[in-house]
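Researcher: Structure for this, please.
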Amino acid sequence: MAEWDLRKLRILRTLRERGTVTATAEALHMTPSAVSQQLTNLARQLGVPLLEAQGRRVRLTDASRLVLAHAEAVFEQLERADAALAAYARGEAGEVRVGAFSTAVPALVVPAVRALRASHPQVTVRVREAEAAEAYELLAGGEVDLALSLAAEAPSAADPRFTRLPLLTDPLDVALPPGHPLAGAGTLALTDLAEEPWIFGGSGPWSDITRRACEAAGFSPHQGHSAAGWTAILAMVEAGMGVALVPRMAAGRREGVVLRELGAERPVRHVVAAVRKGAETGRAVARVLRVLGDTAAAGRPDGGT
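Model: Predicted structure, token format:
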């Protein structure tokens, strides 16, 4: 296979455009002898004559025109590569892999992806749903670039592997069946529901959150039913099978269920983003973090008002 030297091919292309070796040398800030030497070397590398004498000037051979016809496609692709690299350096292009727990995907990640598509369509976000604790394992293993998790499930803020950024505080509301006696009460406290059957998972972070919130209020919740998914939990509440604590990010607008805010003692969960230490300086990652922060800072986690 012939040796293709891009620098020398550019000299040949400039000669075609300028017409003379002297003009080519001036355009490229070279000496005429250096231009002639480079083109002689290129002809030797390709194994074909590239120039032929025409009086005191030279002209390109048919082989030169054939070489340049193919080289133009290479130059065009390199221009595109330069533009893509420049966009990447400015944070306007790139791929960011995001690991996020289930309720964060529709409430935070999807609105952020929509915003990025509008403002920076060359930034690609690839989403992987993962449990809150698992997201950090994926981050540490290099399988995702950014993890959305709960502060309670996160490693210590002093962990040297990660940089953590707080995103939002997600209040927990109580989900009641529409006909519940307290559905229309003026104020509501967790202790008002101490005797109710509660619906939450048998284990995992949501079980811990529910138990801790109720115990902080002074009682241990009676688990009437066990479910981990919000669709199942809210369906059971709607059927009058019990009550549940529901993060506002997960509740949305659920018909058939009454969502009540709690008083001053209302429990909350803290949502954080994390990247590997130093990765926050990457422009594409920084841009995704910024859009996630903007989404979280809006009136509601889903960006509504």
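Researcher: Any notable elements?
Model: The radius of gyration is 32 Å. The first helix runs from residue 6 to 18.
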